[in-house]
Design brief:
The chain has 305 residues and is α+β, with helices and mostly antiparallel strands. The chain is built from 11 helices and 11 strands. The chain is globular and about 55 Å long. Bound molecules: 4-diphosphocytidyl-2-C-methyl-D-erythritol 2-phosphate and adenosine-5'-diphosphate. Adenosine-5'-diphosphate (ADP) binds next to helix 1 and helix 2. GO terms for molecular function: 4-(cytidine 5'-diphospho)-2-C-methyl-D-erythritol kinase activity; ATP binding. It is an enzyme of class 2 (transferase). It holds the Pfam family GHMP_kinases_C. Keywords: ATP-binding, Isoprene biosynthesis, Kinase, Nucleotide-binding, Transferase.
Amino acid sequence: MDTIVLKARGKINLTLDVVGKRDNGYHDLRMIMQTINLYDTITVKKTKTPGIRINNNLAWLPKDDRNITYKAAEKFLKEANITSGVYIDIFKRIPVAAGLAGGSSDAAAVLVGLNKLFETHFSKKKLMEIGLEIGADVPFCILRGTVLAEGIGEVLTPLPSLPSMHILLAKPNISVSTASVYKALKVDEITKHPKTDEYVEAIKARNIQFITNNMDNVLEDVTIKMHPQIEQIKQDMLEYGALGSMMSGSGPTVFGIFPSRYKAAVAAEYFKNQCGLREVHVTSTFCKAKREGKRRERRKFKHEN
Ligand SMILES: C[C@@](CO)(OP(=O)(O)O)[C@H](O)COP(=O)(O)OP(=O)(O)OC[C@H]1O[C@@H](n2ccc(N)nc2=O)[C@H](O)[C@@H]1O
Ligand SMILES: Nc1ncnc2c1ncn2[C@@H]1O[C@H](COP(=O)(O)OP(=O)(O)O)[C@@H](O)[C@H]1O
């Protein structure tokens, strides 16, 4: 096998709490992360000439060692003692610098892809360790699903898959740097924390009402102060019938959980046509259990035939 094509899916944060700050500037978190079905397509190829070459469909996104996938490939090849070259093509759909972990997911896909391509047989745990050196969200992007993330985002407890839910993503026409949001956050001044433990129980009980009513993100106030239109987008989503609406991660993307794809699509038209938002997507939550069930069926079918 010389080429592999992968889906690098984005994420939303259903809850995000900051519980401390480390001496190195990183923050201790407790957050519930959910993979979504909006994805970048990553093609990884072995090349005869050594080195890492990158291409992507956005003119302004770096194609050199500033692309996060370069770091992923460089670390993997070094760790696996591989000297041959690789070519990475990225077709981006996930908005960039948006709170959706698009870059982290691309890096995760490259690690998983190279492991398969070169038949290196690194464990998932090992890939996640390499991923953590690239970014705090990368280990989650390797694991995927519905997950409680602690530590700086790398201590991961898988939770039962949520039933598939309709998600609308609306990104204001601005980009937000994660570092600037964490820098502006005053951890001692956080007065209201998300109900993380109750939320975990609600996921286990598939209590959708609790899940949609109790989404909470302590970074929201920080980013909204910088970009007040985020609050307006949240309110508009609720008016258009969202069961719940919140900013994802450090923002600025706002997501809404909708009772039907139709309602999400009507709201999407409003954000695109009336508000002039350029990056609006209707998608759904990624159901890992369903996916693994399908895989098992495929394996069984192959075996029987
Ligand atoms: C806020 C979150 C929530 O899921 O997501 P995004 O908004 O980026 O999607 C994450 O914590 C973002 O993780 P990620 O974007 O991978 O972080 P990194 O690349 O490692 O770090 C980017 C910047 O965020 C800060 N950072 C990151 C993670 C963390 N636990 N504490 C931090 O203070 C770091 O100081 C760094 O300057
Ligand atoms: N493959 C990539 N996809 C997205 N962003 C990338 C990539 N490589 C490097 N970057 C840089 O990383 C930064 C944030 O990336 P991204 O993961 O999209 O943010 P977030 O985690 O907030 O959604 C951007 O400034 C972008 O220029």
